[in-house]
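FW: tagging you since you asked about this chain on Friday. Here's the raw sequence from the shared folder, copied in full. Didn't touch anything.
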Amino acid sequence: MRKIFDTLPAVLVVTLFLSFTAFMSVQTFSSGFLLYERFWSSQNWNQVPGRIFKVQAYRGCGRGGRGYNLDLKYEYQIGTDTYTNYAIFLGPEKCYSWSELAQLKGQFPIGRTVPVYVDPHRPVNAALVRELGRASTIFIFLIELSLLFATLIPIRFALREWKENKHQMRKLADVLLRRSEIDRSIRVSKH
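HL: got it, structure written out here
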């Protein structure tokens, strides 16, 4: 009986870890779902003309601070209201290499009139390109991969623990089954 109670902390740890993993999976899934939902809904966004008024590169992101951020701002008009935005892609902005930065700066020079895709329900939401961008796609892939490993590790641990302790668990199950049978026979004999 003592060996059965020795396995309870392991079972508790596995249960807590699986609960935490499930919670994080839901959070991660909802983040990924929101990105995909934004992508699909953006296919129906209105296209309006916009004007780029700021393009500036900053060094200092990525590994060792060797990557570049692009500070790009544009304005567009919906009715009589003028909006300012910075989003190139629908997802989070990423750290660019020098060649990617040069390509984007060539594609979006200051003063150029560009098509801006605007959410008709919330005109504050806009993007120059109706794609998630490589950073978002990689982000979603890494999240899914980490969830896979986060789910498989505790399952493997639980299976190993179960194999090591299945004899004790069977004994516990037999004891509980006998006890319930004894309880039933006592109830039947009282009536």
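FW: Residues 44-129 form one domain.
HL: agreed, and The longest strand covers residues 46-61.
FW: great, closing this out.
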